[in-house]
Amino acid sequence: MLQFEQELWDKQIQYIAGIDEVGRGCLFGDVVAAAVILPIGLVIEGINDSKKLSEKKRDLLYDIIRDQALAIGVGIVDCITVDQINIKQAARLAMRQALEQLTIQPEYLLVDAEKVDSSIPQKAIIHGDALSQSIAAASIIAKVTRDRMCLEWDRQHPVYGIALHKGYATKLHRERILMHGPSALHRLTFLKKLLNLQQELF
Is 20 annotated as contributing to ligand binding? Predict the structure, then answer.
């Protein structure tokens, strides 16, 4: 998990920011990105792609990362903006926001399969959240942040089961949308096929 970081450390590059986002494929809610700079040589046991970890493990690692990181930035782009500029651009915007929130200027960016709008040298790594500790740390910060937002959204919009599926297109979520219609936090551009099907059925 430190191969990419080690290559940069060997070149005397100290501040490496791992960047990742979550919520790209959701029908509901904001897309959230995080940028994390970890100390040289730090090894966090058990860290991995946030999707491969249990909620309990993610929460534990979230606290460790918050405690050990040199700097953490979080970017959030709402569902209205997602509909306006498309999800790819919204994810990139959230990543740039996360980068701008860092209190330390990174010298290099390791990004999960994406390019960030920045003049800072960067490398896009496919499946980076499973290959780079820095990206995995960002993945965990972003995932836990968004999951906790989902709990609040569930209280605001209890009929959709957001706390269970986190806004993804599960069978339950699709059924609840057809039953109750979309909320103000649903991404309408993502719902076109589903809502068109409803019109055809009724």
Answer: yes
pTM of the model: 0.94
Write out pLDDT tens, residues 48-89.
Answer: 888 899 999 999 999 999 999 999 999 999 999 999 999 999
Domains and their CATH numbers in the chain = 3-149 (3.30.420.10)
Closest CA relative to residue 144, chosen from 71, 53, 77: 53
- The reply, when asked if residue 21 is annotated as ligand binding, is yes
